[in-house]
Amino acid sequence: MPARKQSSGTVPPGPEHTRTGLSAETLRQAFLDNLFYIQGRFPEIATDDDRYQALSYTVRDRLLHRWVRTIQAYKERDPRTVCYLSAEYLPGPHLANNLLSLGIVDATREALRGLGLDLDAILDHEEEPGLGNGGLGRLAACFMDSLATLEIPAIGYGIRYEYGIFDQKIQDGWQVETSDTWLHYGNPWEVRRPGICYDVRIGGRTEHVTDEHGRLRVHWRHADLFRGVAYDTPVAGYGVETVNLLRLWRAEAAEDFDFTVFNQGDYVGAVMRKVRSETISKVLYPNDEADSGKRLRLLQQYFFVSCSLQDMLRIFATTGRPLAEFHAKFAAQLNDTHPTIAVAELMRLLVDEHGLDWDEAWQATRHTFAYTNHTLLPEALEKWPLPLFADVLPRHLEIVYEINRRFLDDMRLRYPDDPARIARLSIIDETPPKYVRMAHLASVGGHAINGVAALHTRLLGTTVLKDFHDIWPDKFQNKTNGVTPRRFLMLANPGLADLLTEALGDGWTRDLERLRGLEGLADDPAFQDRWRQAKLIRKAALAERLRAGQGNAIDPASLFDIQAKRIHEYKRQHLNLLHVVTLYNRLKHAPDADVPARTVLFGGKAAPGYAMAKLIIKLINAVAEVVNRDPDMRDRLKVVFVPDYNVKVAQSVYPAADLSEQISTAGMEASGTGNMKFSLNGALTIGTLDGANVEIREAVGPDNFFLFGLDADEAVRTRAAGYRPYALYERDPELRAAVDLIAGGHFAHGDAGLFRPLVDHLLGRDDYLLLADYRAYVDCQDRVADAWRDPARWTRMAILNVARMGRFSSDRAIAEYCRDIWNVAPARVDG
Ligand code: Z57
């Protein structure tokens, strides 16, 4: 075993190869070594968890060497560094991904086989970190993967929630939440850094004093003090030496505080206050796209942002550069408004703590930050009630006021006779009790604003941020989302990945545009056969998983029609259900009708406080119960709810799909990323002209995409023209029959009240225009069925989808951010 270069002096002494070697034999030895010395076990008595831990530590050792070398390279070269600030990360299981990045999947499999162990069984044991809700958190994880793979110096900053997104159980058809205990068995992927910790203050009041040089100074007499401790997780690039850093903060008590300052003999009380400090990073808020206003949520945001900026300042100090050049070292991305308090916090740190003057600090701040918007939904645009904000962050409120005063002074010069516009632009919403508008703070405090798909970016500039677009059109950019082909193709769908590599070579794994080489094979019957084989294997695997999990028998030969994403009215899972009920009605009336067998699968979590979303889950399960035991359906229609949808489940769902449901009301879904993962795995899309669907359809070709429904402009006009869903219900007999069946209690053991809120909403308001799109959707589904009857045609369409999805790699998205927003370049780490 040739030893790695020792010249850097970073490799610790000892039997070096057992911690770095990549051969099957070395991996086997290292695994046994870790099983003994970390778990205190030998093979005969080891549990699943022992094996998982031992293998994870084996892989971690191999990452640590690259990690240290990466940090060294960055230290030497002092490159501009991306800091991705995100309240959420959804990385998915680490072990398999790290094996893939290191290129040791096969060697590890062989090593374990030598011990009579099965790698897949060990992989299956991992409890994934569910530190995010959905698309936004998963995007952050895809971006971390691409940053490392493109060899971009980057740190992901966030919160180490002790409890991530809840686990979902289904009881009697209803969603029941249980707490996520992902840390129960310990987490071999993180390194706690007790030495990297920062104090975070909150509350209290400010004092304005003049110092001995006649300078105005602000003292923040805080009321409470916390400490954030860093927990680092390595993020390995695929096929490169780069290992970047995901640094998550855990809240702890600031030592000494209670005991020295406030201790009045109340020892137990002081300890209890310490325990309470830990609540800041205790639990992830389980709302995707919902409103804010909770004090603890603001504390979480400020907590992780303050730790991250203090950490950046510490790193900056090691470069010896003057503080006014902070922005030359760091490009910080605000992942939605959640970290936007960073604008005020960096100003505070630079002005109050480091003595910069306001203009210098403002210059550095504006050039540091850029803001990504992920939604147009009004209820998701964060605004903090002023009394709450003032109570938690009194100094930051003063800073926000000062930013706003200067900004509005400029705007009054520009628009002297337009006070209404000034009020609209203001960072402060003056409606009682007054609010701080975080999207405005992000727009003013950064140098770029981006949407996440072309349509979304256009709507952003013409609706919610129109006034900002008027003043700074050049600040607006589009950065269409992307997904990592490593996790979502290579890991999730090894059979298809092998087929692609056989046809194209392996260049596609780091340059996804190369998939275009498949176009020439789209009509090749032998290739089509192998394509269908690969798909069938994933469908059978999912069917087996579901059978084992819930006793649902589903037929891998049927059309797998899948909608998997958070449950939300705007995503319209219930439109999908109206189609299912329509198929059911058709089969009831003509039991011998010749329709292709379909399995309609749903997966997704509802926010625990979102009653309508939970009712939709109940309705899915209620329809499933009736449909699945009706002999008239005779295996031609099945409905399945896949419980506890998370990244791991997603990896087995995307590759098994024939049809991908992307049916949100046009104008509502900012981008979507599941749409990309399905299509990249050879599913055809039925979808509206919403989010990135628009660009996916353009890329794969309109003939290879099932389009239906109103577009975003038509949706606006439909609502403006006095939309009356009831009229549509009266006019379309199939629609009426489907709604009536649900309303009448057919799926509720005769209880006509159960789904009343849902039906009433559809017939009375129908905010998301289900009834307006129903006919187009059902007719489009009939075209899907026709295409499915012709396997050669279907497979050709699927191959062309994959061939043309190269643009939707997160590598492309990240390359665009690097070029257009961050102005950063790769810094190669040598092996
Ligand atoms: C979230 O997952 C998204 C937007 C939000 O405002 C919040 Br809060 C959470 C999603 C969008 O709904 C998707 O359309 C988008 O693809 C994703 O963010 C990533 O940009």
Q: Separation of termini? A: 16 Å
**Beta-strand segment tally:** 22
Mean pLDDT reading: 95
- Heteromolecules bound: (1S)-1,5-anhydro-1-(4-bromo-2,5-dihydroxyphenyl)-D-glucitol
Q: What profile does the largest beta sheet have? A: 9 strands, mixed
Which outline best applies?
globular
Count of helix runs: 34
Strand order within the widest sheet?
Answer: 5-8-9-2-1-10-11-15-16
CATH topology of the largest domain: Rossmann fold
For the record, the count of structural domains works out to: 3
The H-level CATH homologous superfamily of the largest domain, spelled out, is Glycogen Phosphorylase B
- Please identify the top-level CATH class of the largest domain: Alpha Beta
- CATH architecture title of the largest domain: 3-Layer(aba) Sandwich
Keywords: Carbohydrate metabolism, Glycogen metabolism, Glycosyltransferase, Pyridoxal phosphate, Transferase
EC number: 2.4.1.1
Cofactor: pyridoxal 5'-phosphate
GO molecular function: glycogen phosphorylase activity; pyridoxal phosphate binding
